[in-house]
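BUG: 3D viewer hangs when loading the predicted structure for this chain

Environment: internal workstation, default settings.
Expected: structure renders.
Actual: progress bar stalls at 90%.

Input used:
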Amino acid sequence: MPLDWAATQNNLGTALFRLGERESGTARLEEAVAAYRAALEEQTRDRVPLAWATTRNNLSAALKALGERESGTAHLGEAVAAYRATLEEQTRDRVPLAWAAAQHNLGGALLTLGERESGTAHLEEAITAYRAALQERTRDRVPLAWAATQLGLGNAFERLAERESGTARLEEAVGAYHAALQEWSRDRVPLQWAATQNNLGNALETLGERESRTARLEEAVAAYRAALEEWTRERAPLDWAGTQNNLGDALRALGERESGTTPLEEAVVAFDKYLTVTEVAWPQTWVQQVRSHRDKTRAEIAQRWATK
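Structure tokens produced before the viewer hung:
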């Protein structure tokens, strides 16, 4: 039976995809893509439109995961096309929450694609997709999914803000992260809460650097310190180290606008904590950059003490 065969291929693809998510290579993900494509040879849109849309959605997820592990954009472009094809059958009128999920996933693929390109078109399309998802993924109906889409929207705004000089996009990113934290609470999803606090800190830090006041930098410091309450060295050493570096950057920026040395001294401590984990774990160019920031901060502290 061809449709039974296709259903089995789809199930095989899902099993391979789950396996591929837990492995570091791409072989299982490539096999998942092949299985989904095989299923689509029989699960055609004309014959079984909703099954076709489901398998297209599964194919999209595998292509997106594959694209995230590669340096190019080919698989991400295919994922975007597959999600858009899915939306031709998984319409808002027919299956509103499935439509919203596909819009959310489309936003994620467009965001990753946009991060690898110099233009802003795909980032703006990601924002459009996330906003579309939120039309059905409401806080009342699906609070955790709503929060996940708010996080994606915040990420898209933040990436877009990096390519612009103003603060409007950053303000929107901060608003989206704060919204996500209303449902992604520390008690409910501690690690997601920490990740969102870290992203909030990033947006606040960039916002603070573009303003003359120190309030946003102080908020960034608070957000990073909140993230570190759950992203501990024991539980998530690389996330802990990365957030220590972010904290150091924010404290350094804050210290440059103040006459004392306390924030600068705290920045040195944060940079040193980063280096205890990442000396051998991360690319040497990153490590050298952080070491340079720490040494310049130490020099600034010494200069301030010398002129007192």
